[in-house]
Amino acid sequence: MHSNDATAGVFGIEMVETGPSRTVVRMSVRPDMCNGFQILHGGMTFLLADSAMAFASNADNEMALASSAEIDWLAPVEIGQTLTATAERRWSSGRSTLWDIVVRAADDPDSEGAVVALMRGRTRKVGRPVVADT
Question: 2-129 falls under which CATH superfamily?
Answer without folding.
Answer: Hotdog Thioesterase (3.10.129.10)
